[in-house]
């Protein structure tokens, strides 16, 4: 049985339906669980042959209405989500540098049904200590040195020793930046001599992007036609480059990129684009 399915079943069986109201909210706990899994995958850092480290401290930002619905259960829900992350990490052979924590926060700039996940790696006292000084987030906001004040906890007893310091990373991440050389794929032009391939996946079907721009829409004139009544005739356009971007073309229902309603966004490998009721996965890879 999959980790997400087990997580959902545990929630349904808790305290005589404690989470019945939660499941009526626009953002479902299982959606958050899936986003936490993706956050681990996207920020996995290879330390050595025996250890791949993933974030252990997560903040889930919710719209005000969703936060009000979920906050009464934040403690229990956070524990369940942390347990799900632990199970997923075991399945993927990921390890952590400290205890797993999941927090909910309210974000006034998000509409109902949208959310953001931020993560960082916080070292416990028995493993590698955090670097000195604040870590810059996506908006340049400094993070508190040493994390959010969690008490140190013992790491895995049989864990291999950590290097003296984290490997050099690329700027722009929340918490400790992910080294570009260790990511599954790299941004266009990130490695010399490699040719970047671009494609999108819709309902399991792959559509190669062979030109600098790709128009998605319901019209037969679109480069990729999406048969969805919620999609406009020329809904949005993907531009490949450094970095790749997506632009709304004045559609009726707009676009949602990685959980955020927007008119323009930067794309990375694995970005999830929602148009109408259709999910489009953006992919890029070297070679």
From TrEMBL:
Xref: Pfam families: FHA (PF00498), FhaA_N (PF12401)
Q: Where is the composition biased (Low complexity)?
A: 123-142
Which InterPro entries does the record match to this protein? Cell_Proc_Reg/RNA_Proc, FHA_dom, FhaA_N, FhaA_N_sf, SMAD_FHA_dom_sf
Q: Which UniProt keywords apply?
A: Phosphoprotein
Q: Which residues form the FHA domain?
A: 214-262
Residue stretches in coiled coil: none
Name the residue ranges with Pro residues bias: 158-170
Q: Which residue intervals make up region (Disordered)? A: 120-192
The cross-references to SUPFAM superfamilies, in alphabetical order and at most eight, read: SMAD/FHA domain
Q: What is this protein called?
A: FHA domain-containing protein
């Amino acid at each position: 049985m999959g980790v997400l399915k087990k997580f959902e079943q545990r929630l349904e069986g808790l305290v005589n339906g404690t989470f019945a109201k939660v499941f009526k909210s626009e953002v479902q706990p299982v959606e958050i669980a899936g986003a936490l899994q993706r956050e681990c995958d996207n920020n996995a850092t290879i330390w050595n042959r025996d250890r791949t480290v993933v974030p252990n401290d997560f903040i889930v930002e919710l719209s005000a209405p969703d936060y009000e619905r979920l906050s009464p259960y934040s403690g229990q829900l956070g524990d369940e989500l942390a347990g799900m992350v632990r199970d997923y990490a075991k399945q993927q052979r990921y390890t952590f540098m400290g205890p797993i924590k999941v927090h909910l926060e309210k974000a006034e700039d998000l509409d109902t049904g949208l959310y953001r996940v931020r993560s960082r790696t916080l070292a416990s006292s028995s493993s590698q200590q955090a670097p000195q000084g604040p870590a810059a987030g996506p908006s340049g906001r400094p993070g508190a040195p040493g994390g959010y004040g969690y008490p140190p906890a013992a790491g895995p007893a049989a864990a291999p020793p950590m290097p003296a310091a984290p490997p050099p990373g690329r700027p722009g991440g929340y918490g400790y930046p992910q080294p570009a050389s260790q990511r599954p794929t790299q941004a266009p032009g990130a490695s010399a001599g490699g040719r970047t391939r671009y494609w999108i996946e819709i309902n399991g079907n792959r559509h190669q992007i062979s030109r600098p721009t790709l128009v998605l829409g319901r019209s037969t004139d679109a480069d990729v036609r999406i048969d969805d009544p919620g999609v406009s005739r020329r809904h949005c356009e993907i531009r490949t480059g450094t970095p790749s971007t997506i632009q709304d073309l004045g559609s009726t229902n707009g676009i949602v990129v990685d959980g955020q309603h927007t008119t323009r966004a930067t794309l990375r490998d694995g970005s999830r684009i929602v148009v109408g009721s259709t999910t489009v996965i953006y992919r890029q890879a070297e070679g």
